[in-house]
């Protein structure tokens, strides 16, 4: 169920999250709106994925992505958040984030401590970096999806 929809192309505005303090952990996550999240296949597994991401007309970077149960909605709705593996000069709320999800790392987990959570995320980031260097993954970085006008229909290729 995790892999069957991949590669998954998606574009939408970056909205305010629900302040889980991702940035304070050094791992900010750009959140998609509820509307974009609702457009995801309902049988796409929660968990940690990787792929490529681009803010506005900017460069394409590696990313790790979490599809998780959204505590703000008492875990009946999902949230989709991307940590882009790049240091940005400033926040980009309100900008259009384009992503392609190309691989799956692991299911959602609960952690006993903040340290355990942070080190798991660091491992996810290293795993994403390694996978995305492989030729079959690298090709998605060059996908036309990242270079075409926003009116392009997505997931219809
Ligand atoms: P929120 O709860 O509002 O999502 P976060 O602590 O998760 O707050 O921070 C997310 C915001 O940080 C993003 O919306 C974006 O504007 C900014 N940001 C800066 N660098 C990155 C990055 N490398 N990846 C994702 N978001 C980033
Ligand atoms: Mg966030």
TrEMBL record:
<keyword id="KW-0547">Nucleotide-binding</keyword>
<dbReference type="InterPro" id="IPR015865">
    <property type="entry name" value="Riboflavin_kinase_bac/euk"/>
</dbReference>
<dbReference type="InterPro" id="IPR023468">
    <property type="entry name" value="Riboflavin_kinase"/>
</dbReference>
<dbReference type="GO" id="GO:0009398">
    <property type="term" value="P:FMN biosynthetic process"/>
</dbReference>
<comment type="pathway">
    <text>Cofactor biosynthesis; FMN biosynthesis; FMN from riboflavin (ATP route): step 1/1.</text>
</comment>
<dbReference type="Pfam" id="PF01687">
    <property type="entry name" value="Flavokinase"/>
</dbReference>
<dbReference type="GO" id="GO:0009231">
    <property type="term" value="P:riboflavin biosynthetic process"/>
</dbReference>
<keyword id="KW-0285">Flavoprotein</keyword>
<feature type="domain" description="Riboflavin kinase">
    <location>
        <begin position="3"/>
        <end position="133"/>
    </location>
</feature>
<keyword id="KW-0067">ATP-binding</keyword>
<dbReference type="InterPro" id="IPR023465">
    <property type="entry name" value="Riboflavin_kinase_dom_sf"/>
</dbReference>
<keyword id="KW-0808">Transferase</keyword>
<dbReference type="GO" id="GO:0005524">
    <property type="term" value="F:ATP binding"/>
</dbReference>
<comment type="function">
    <text>Catalyzes the phosphorylation of riboflavin (vitamin B2) to form flavin-mononucleotide (FMN), hence rate-limiting enzyme in the synthesis of FAD. Essential for TNF-induced reactive oxygen species (ROS) production. Through its interaction with both TNFRSF1A and CYBA, physically and functionally couples TNFRSF1A to NADPH oxidase. TNF-activation of RFK may enhance the incorporation of FAD in NADPH oxidase, a critical step for the assembly and activation of NADPH oxidase.</text>
</comment>
<keyword id="KW-0288">FMN</keyword>
<keyword id="KW-0479">Metal-binding</keyword>
<keyword id="KW-0418">Kinase</keyword>
<protein>
    <recommendedName>
        <fullName>Riboflavin kinase</fullName>
        <ecNumber>2.7.1.26</ecNumber>
    </recommendedName>
</protein>
<dbReference type="GO" id="GO:0046872">
    <property type="term" value="F:metal ion binding"/>
</dbReference>
<dbReference type="GO" id="GO:0008531">
    <property type="term" value="F:riboflavin kinase activity"/>
</dbReference>
<keyword id="KW-0862">Zinc</keyword>
<dbReference type="GO" id="GO:0005739">
    <property type="term" value="C:mitochondrion"/>
</dbReference>
């Amino acid at each position: 169920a995790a892999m069957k929809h991949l590669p998954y192309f998606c574009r939408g505005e970056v909205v305010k999250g629900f302040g889980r303090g991702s940035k304070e952990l050094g791992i900010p996550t750009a959140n998609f709106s509820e509307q974009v999240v609702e457009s995801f296949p309902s049988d796409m597994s929660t968990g940690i994925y990787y792929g490529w991401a681009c803010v506005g007309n900017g460069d394409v970077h590696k990313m790790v992505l979490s599809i998780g149960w959204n505590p703000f909605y008492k875990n009946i709705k999902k949230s989709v958040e991307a940590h882009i593996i790049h240091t940005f000069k400033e926040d980009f709320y309100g900008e259009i984030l384009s992503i392609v999800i190309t691989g799956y790392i692991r299911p959602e987990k609960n952690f006993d401590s903040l340290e355990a959570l942070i080190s798991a995320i660091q491992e996810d980031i290293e795993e994403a970096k390694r996978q995305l260097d492989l030729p079959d993954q690298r090709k998605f970085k060059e996908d036309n999806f990242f270079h075409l006008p926003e009116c392009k229909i997505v997931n219809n290729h």
